[in-house]
Write a structure and sequence with these properties.
Elements lengths: L12 H9 L28
Length: about 50
């Protein structure tokens, strides 16, 4: 019998998709989601990295 430990690396496919979706958006540009907020205060805050 073998025991396999789960991977320690978390894979967030949604985050990877959002990085592609918002690629090229500057921090002070309006957020492409249409909220009216700056990107850094909207979706940019979640993409840090």
């Amino acid at each position: 019998m073998t025991f396999r430990t789960p991977s320690l690396a978390a894979i967030d496919f949604v985050d990877e998709h959002n990085r592609e979706r918002f690629a090229g958006t500057g921090r002070n540009d309006p957020c492409p989601c249409g909220s009216g907020n700056k990107f850094k205060k909207c979706h940019g805050a979640r993409l840090g990295g």
